[in-house]
Design brief:
The structure is a homodimer. Chain A has 22 helices and six strands. Chain A is mostly helical. Chain A has three domains: 127 residues, MgtE N-terminal domain-like (MgtE N-terminal fold), CATH 1.25.60; 107 residues, Roll (CBS-domain); 181 residues, SLC41 divalent cation transporters, integral membrane domain (Tetracycline Repressor, domain 2, Orthogonal Bundle), CATH 1.10.357. In chain A, α16 packs parallel to α22 and α21 packs antiparallel against α22. The radius of gyration of chain A is 30 Å and the shape is elongated.
Chain lengths: 460, 460
């Protein structure tokens, strides 16, 4: 939060406490709805929130409302009269109404639907049908469309008449009588055309569109690739059913990046901002993978147990002391590759068909990396570790370094292949990759280490 | 890549091989510039690229050009005549020209500047002055501005006259004679107003703007918070110097998310798409942290060495076998917290001043998590591990589980505090946090483990 906003918040607090509501209302209209929502949620208690919300200028209330946390939304809805609720809902865009409804309990949903116009209710119900991850769930049905035979001045008349209720007027769509999407025309095109030009002639008929069931992440990528400000959504028959606007695409991009970070860190994804998560919900998101990974470490204990006696006799146990370094380095190496590939998949830079290119690339890189790390590890063992522990012989240093080289190569191979395989099996690359890589690489490198140590160290 | 695009690419290839250039040009104009750039880079060799690029319809060439990789751009520039180059540059928006220049060697930069108009050259040089991470480097100077006294119809005249060269016409700015930013007016406002309304009266004078030196990540967050399609950039005197458009903000959001993922995975951030990175550049990005982390594991080896004899005598070495599980679990626990906090910092949800709220939140969660994991670990040790290794006594299981509880709490504390401290010291939370957490937590939990084991296991 910057200082300017901080000062404004202080003023709002003061005016609210002093009950100077007239001046307060004037102040409010000079602040962005997103910031007012932050003020209400962070600075006011539940009762004050309702009083303050009722003070909001009419045209502001719904813009502020959609910025709230779902808990705040629910509390507010329960405190509003039907008439107040209706005013808020009427001013909201349909995609936002659907987002609110998605998080509400059944009785609140009923109240919202009851207070919508019959036409809105029908469209809301249609939008609610789409799966949460689809373009359909992201879109709004409030767009501007023309007939191809309209003139430019007729188009402007329609924009002036219907524009105020539309989420964007800057990209308009041309459809036939059956709503088939024929083309797209921007307000810029319209402004630069002559009033009696025909819309069908100036429109662009190569339209990039999304399908209702398309993954919303995929839709967001189209925005980032092509730089659009809106994207039409069509059904299977090619009929225009809605549009997605860039602000929603930005939200998806942020959410997906957060989710990927969470999954890579072995956390179940949550949408709530960190400071709003309860201790209980943090526990629920983190405990599953923490336990799974802890339990899967049983393998490493079992492997170490079974080689225990042998390892202790050879070089009086010194080999044990390098196990954490070996497993840690292999884990880091695998993590580098999996994070790179998972992110490249998320950005649509890499597909399953690229698997051999990816393996080849990682193989070359991992050879170079493994050899560099192996050589330096060998030097470190002979120059530093030997000072502290005379049991670090040439043989021990050699076996440790060799296993490190092999473990890095295996880890990087797993790290690049597993996310792609997961993607192919329609599993989530980020969830599947990291934990499995750790477990497999840990077990494999330990077995190789123990086997090599027992075979070679006594001979050297 | 979807199938439709794949088919189009096949057609383009065929037409190009058959030298049916007329039909090819028609086909090209039906494909998005971003896709044509992909086609040229992925399907054509260096010589073909130049031939193909020359075939592009004039209005298309610069849109395709800016989508290329910098290597492709450099090769193309070196093959174009001055006249061709001038045509491409003239059609580019200034912020894109600056992006291209940023990646070019000095001789190519000279040629680009030589082939720009004097006015453009002056503005390009100004934009080049801004640091790479600033709003200034992101903005373009091509925006539409009005005088507050203009009427709406005068405003439209200006849009029609100057609009074609502007990056966006949908958000326009109102400035005084000294270019001070007075307000913002959208084309929607203008369309819904009467022709003789005065711009100064319908404009919104509460403008959210960025300053030239503001961090570009911060600027991008404003887009995601407020849902803008353009944001004005002002200098220290409050004069309008440029605008940032939402497509550039989307790119920044994607890049920053990728960078954070890379840093958390102990990779130096790179901007190039994965498949375009050379083996050498992958090596350079990954080797530093891989080595640093490997070398820092010297501590763990030293700690284990110094407790070696004691650990081997107690319970005949079984304590060693749980070291990987302890360190792995503590590492996972710390990683969960640091990833969560790093992402929350990136999304501006958490600031340094929230440090005590964060610590309190993590402390509660870590107690719950640590106890759950500890209890289950104890059960696992007694029920499963004991089957394989009779040396797993009540005492061993108790110490291992207790240390696990302590290690998880320490790891989560470090995981939430270090990123915030790094942020406070103006270091990068993502870079600093993960590697240090691993090293510190590994060392601490090992020392506690060894100390507790030696003190208590023999007594039990």
């Amino acid at each position: 939060m910057n200082e300017e906003l901080e000062i404004k918040f202080e003023q709002l607090s003061q005016l609210f406490t002093d009950r100077k509501f007239q001046i307060l209302r004037e102040q409010i209209s000079e602040i962005e709805p997103a910031d007012i929502a932050i003020f209400i949620e962070e600075r006011l208690d539940e009762k004050e929130r309702i009083v303050f919300f009722r003070l909001l200028p009419k045209e502001f209330a719904s813009d502020v409302f959609i910025e709230f946390d779902s808990d705040t939304q629910e509390n507010l809805i329960n405190s509003l009269t039907d008439k107040e609720l209706k005013a808020v809902i009427d001013d909201m865009f349909l995609d936002d109404t659907v987002d609110v409804i998605d998080e509400m309990p059944a009785n609140v949903v009923k109240r919202i639907l009851k207070n919508s116009t019959p036409q809105d209710r029908k469209q809301i119900n249609e939008l609610l049908e789409y799966s949460d991850d689809s373009a359909g769930s992201l879109m709004t049905t409030e767009y501007v469309s023309f007939n191809a035979k309209n003139t430019v001045s007729e188009a402007f008349d329609k924009i002036r008449k219907t524009g105020p209720d539309k989420e964007t007027i800057y990209t308009c769509y041309v459809t036939d009588s059956k709503k088939h999407l024929l083309g797209v025309v921007s307000v810029k095109d319209l402004l630069l055309a002559k009033p009696d030009d025909i819309v069908g002639e100036i429109m662009d008929d190569n339209v990039i569109s999304a399908e209702t069931f398309e993954d919303k992440e995929h839709v967001a990528m189209k925005f980032s690739k092509y730089g659009f400000i809106a994207l039409p959504v069509v059904d299977k028959e090619g009929c225009l059913v809605g549009i997605v606007t860039v602000d929603d695409a930005v939200d998806v991009i942020q959410e997906e990046a957060t989710e990927d970070v969470q999954k890579m860190a072995a956390i179940l994804p949550t949408e709530k901002p960190y400071l709003k998560q309860s201790t209980w919900s943090i526990w629920k998101a983190r405990i599953p993978w923490l336990l799974i990974l802890m339990l899967s470490a049983t393998f490493t204990s079992m492997i170490l147990s079974s080689y225990e006696e042998a390892l202790m006799i050879i070089s009086s146990g010194v080999l044990y002391t390098f196990v954490p370094m070996l497993m840690g380095t292999a884990g880091n190496a695998g993590g580098q590759s999996s994070a790179t590939v998972i992110r490249a998949i998320a950005l649509d830079e890499v597909k399953f068909k690229d698997i051999f290119r990816v393996i080849w690339k990682e193989l070359k890189a991992s050879l170079l990396l493994a050899l560099s790390v192996g050589v330096i590890c060998f030097a470190k063992l002979m120059l530093i570790d030997r000072l502290f522990n005379p049991n670090v012989s040439w043989g021990v240093a050699g076996v440790v370094s060799l296993v490190l080289v092999v473990a890095i190569i295996i880890a990087k191979f797993m790290g690049c292949v597993l996310p792609l395989l997961a993607k192919k099996c329609r599993l989530d690359p980020a969830v599947v990759a990291s934990p499995f890589i750790t477990t497999i690489v840990d077990a494999l490198s330990l077995i190789i280490y123990c086997a090599l140590a027992i075979a070679f160290v006594p001979l050297l």
